[in-house]
Design brief:
The structure is a homodimer of 347-residue chains.
Chain A: H1 2-8, H2 12-19, H3 29-42, H4 48-55, E1 60-65, H5 73-86, E2 90-95, H6 100-112, E3 117-120, H7 126-132, E4 150-153, E5 162-166, H8 168-182, E6 187-191, H9 197-212, E7 221-223, H10 229-242, E8 248-251, H11 254-266, E9 276-278, E10 295-297, H12 300-314, E11 328-331, E12 334-336
Parallel strand pairs in A: 1-2, 1-3, 3-4, 4-5, 5-11, 6-7, 6-8, 8-9
Antiparallel strand pairs in A: 10-12
The structure holds a DNA duplex (16 and 16 nucleotides).
DNA sequence: CTGAAAGCGCTTACAG
DNA sequence: CTGAAAGCGCTTACAG
């Protein structure tokens, strides 16, 4: 920058003003032109870290996700990236492996990098409350990151933390309705872990909607230990053992549904002739399964985008000044009907 | 830091020395203890950005990938993260969408953030040469980032840029051998785009190995326009039209194989009875396809890990001082035999 | 409209 | 072993 100043024959402070769109109005147009030219000739690039040190804003956002390897997250991350990009912010994503210790370390890493805000797609909600400093940290949640703005992604919290999540109730409603219309009356639910807001909300929605329709079957909800294929297999097996006459299974996510599919086949049950099966998320390749999986498509990219925008809004960093100050958003899903659901065969 | 200094009754320079493991040896143990205690009481955390400004090392690495949404990359990214983590560096990943303009913008973003080095998993190789400043930038590759160390991931370059890639020749050799052993003699290859080093290398390997075995069929290589399902369908259809009597297809990647599988089924060809099919990468869910796909498992995590280590090595930032200075690594794959390959039926 | 000065939070020769 | 000083590359009141 000193070089640019010298070449343009001005002070560095003028270079700074000239090059900053927000302040370039205050400097004479000819001067701006001279500075711009000098900076281009020199190939000058602003050191954004130095700027951050001075302005106390790093224009960086930290995002914690459990596992990048889970296909649910990449589209979300891309959405966040897109939103941040518009406001010239950078994203740092860190994996936490769903491990509370790693979550704390990751949080520290990211906070130490002076992020301006946090996006949490992470499981252990206790952390969030602690983060906000609103309650004494629950056991195991000792990290404090001094009032940094945070928005939860794909997770809700019991406190009043901002979030954007899929609309689980609406999504499950779509599934139950679809199954009802086909004529199913004995429907099971392979639920996700109860300590995830998503697993919990979907199970709750399942009970609510089947009950409302008068078709809730006691014992029809089996909770898997994790959102993965193996736990899906185990839960489905348990469910089938308990209620062999189920004609449809609603899984809390596609991986769980894949687990169900595999035990169903193993037991000689045909999908959808004997048992209809529905997933959640519409992850890649699920349309090439046999049969192609009926599932709920969640607007993952949008979720990320909205979450990014929301956080930027909290920072006063996005263009639209008087934009909606909505702080809790639930995005509706879309039912994608494929081949894994059909009318139950008459018995 | 000033607060810590005051509380410990020392100068900030002493605080700095005491808290830095590399220099804490030079300060009296009691002083260190006092400083550490003060910093803990105050919850002091080093501002790594300020440190970076002073030391001219951000301890940050930039990584460009075409598309995080492609399941191939997340494990690679995790590997990189793991390697960097050990040396206390942070990763910034940016998507380029395989678009040359976005690649340049991404590069700029990341370079502007003062990264110490670059990991490029990106397609447009021209850029790399330009990056290294070894040749006049090819048309369209105008970005210059002044001698930053770079290592290519999953890509090779014609220059002498460091890289870590899958060993495509070895992987394809595994496939061809497997097919040969089963008795196939008319094998087709659905190749990836020729302008990707991976697509190119695999096609080359396919020709070399089938030729060496005396079973190369002229016209048996059809190049897909991209590594995706639809292009795989198109290429497979073209291949089948031209050579209806193929008994096996080797696809340059799993997505391409999925495309093949779908046209094969559409045409009433059974896999593996009529046509055997092999993919590459072993992406998630490919084992739940019908039939489960035989494929080559690439050590993605390891690739990322090695690449990260290599770059750290170039920066002199990793623990092991005299470590191997290998600069071009090709990691062997493993053939995962599942149900999509079998002996050809006798005619 | 522009310059001189101070300062963001650190590290590191340089003295002592 | 420790302090005082300078400086990394910026921005921003404060004068003029």
């Amino acid at each position: 920058m000193a070089d640019v100043a010298r070449r343009a024959g001005v002070d560095t402070s003028t270079v700074s003003r000239a090059l900053n769109p927000r302040t370039s109005g205050r400097v004479r147009p000819e001067t701006v032109a001279r500075v711009v030219q000098a900076s281009e000739e020199l190939g000058y690039r602003l050191n954004v870290l130095a700027r951050g040190l001075r302005t106390q804003r790093s224009r960086t956002i930290g995002m914690l996700i459990p596992d990048l390897t889970n296909p649910f997250f990449p589209p979300v991350v891309r959405g966040v990236e897109a939103a941040l990009d518009e406001a010239d912010h950078t994203l740092i994503v860190v994996n936490t492996d769903d491990d509370i210790d790693r979550e704390e370390r990751s949080l520290r890493t990211v906070v130490d990098r002076q992020v301006d805000g946090l996006l949490l797609a992470t499981t252990h909600l206790g952390m969030v409350r602690s983060a906000q400093g609103r309650t004494p940290p629950p056991a195991g949640a000792t990290v404090d990151f001094g009032g940094l703005p945070v928005v939860l992604v794909n997770r809700r919290s019991d406190g009043d933390v901002a979030h954007v999540t899929p609309d689980d109730h609406q999504g499950i409603a779509l599934v139950v309705e679809h199954l009802l219309e086909l004529g199913h009356e004995r429907i099971g639910h392979v639920a996700g872990p109860a300590d995830t807001s998503t697993g919990h909300a979907r199970a709750e929605a399942f009970e609510a909607h089947t009950t409302a329709a008068g078709v809730f079957v006691p014992g029809s909800v089996e909770t898997a230990s994790a959102f993965a294929v193996e736990p899906g297999r185990a839960a489905c097996a348990a469910l089938l053992d308990r209620l062999p006459d189920l004609t449809a299974i609603c899984a809390a996510n596609d991986l769980l549904a894949v687990g169900c599919l595999s035990v169903l086949k193993e037991r000689g049950l045909r999908v959808p002739e004997d048992v209809s099966l529905v997933g959640f998320n519409d992850m890649p390749l699920v349309d090439f399964l046999e049969p192609a999986l009926t599932t709920v498509q969640v607007p993952q990219y949008d979720m990320g985008f909205r979450a990014g925008q929301m956080l930027l809004g909290m920072l006063g960093a996005n263009g639209d000044s008087g934009g909606s100050a909505e702080t809790r958003v639930e995005l509706p899903g879309r039912l994608i009907v494929r081949r894994s659901t059909a009318e139950p065969v008459a018995t």
